Automatic annotation (TrEMBL):
InterPro entries: DUF2911. This is DUF2911 domain-containing protein. Pfam families: DUF2911 (PF11138). Residues 22-35 have a biased composition (Basic and acidic residues). Residues 22-42 are annotated as: Disordered. It comes from the Bacteria.
Length: 192
């Protein structure tokens, strides 16, 4: 009987020792093939920019471009007569390395937040000294540098994603256009 107890003790010690020494293998990493088989996630409001050089002025607009996605935008998703950051996510900004003139007002070289107040009959265009903010969270009218009104153009065709363009009219004149849904806004400017 003591022989069976001795064998049981030895067997038990071997079992405990083997359990302690057992090493776990790390989980294998997924293969590159498995990763690339997954479709890339679609960005709903891609970050983009528009740039142009007119005369000696380099003008850059940085924005996120939301899509219509079967929604009513102006007067729907974006209420009329309220400040809009003129893009998605971070506020849209415009930068010029040379003084320009917009609506008869001088805009000094620098970087500015670009905001609008859309309405049916006219839009208010706003250039604000606070260019680095999320949406319109920190927008304050007292920081406005230039504010003026433009008449929107209603198009027949739909522009799915918000798009800015800077077009050269002459060596000293250009136009900034904002187009989205069926609305287009044109902002003429002159290089100083």
């Amino acid at each position: 009987m003591s022989r069976y107890i001795s064998i049981s003790i030895v067997f038990g010690l071997l079992l405990i020792t083997s359990c302690k020494e057992k090493k776990t293998e790390p989980m294998p990493e997924p293969s590159k093939e498995a990763i690339t088989d997954q479709p890339p996630k679609k960005v709903l409001s891609p970050h983009t920019s528009a740039m142009a050089t007119i005369g000696n002025a380099h003008i850059h607009i940085d924005y996120s471009s939301p899509g219509v996605r079967d929604r009513m935008i102006f007067g729907g998703l974006l209420a009329y007569d309220e400040v809009w950051q003129a893009g998605a996510h971070m506020a849209t900004w415009i930068e010029t390395d040379t003084d320009i003139e917009i609506d008869g007002k001088e805009l000094k070289a620098g970087k500015y937040g670009f905001f609008t107040i859309p309405s049916k009959e006219e839009w208010t265009i706003i250039l604000n000294s606070n260019w680095n903010q999320h949406g319109k969270d920190e927008y304050d009218e007292k920081d406005d540098v230039i504010r003026f009104k433009v008449t929107p153009i209603i198009a027949d065709s739909l522009k799915e994603h918000l798009e800015y363009n800077i077009d050269k009219i002459s060596d000293t004149e250009g136009e900034i256009t904002l187009a989205w849904e069926k609305v287009k806004v044109v902002i003429p400017f002159k290089v100083k």
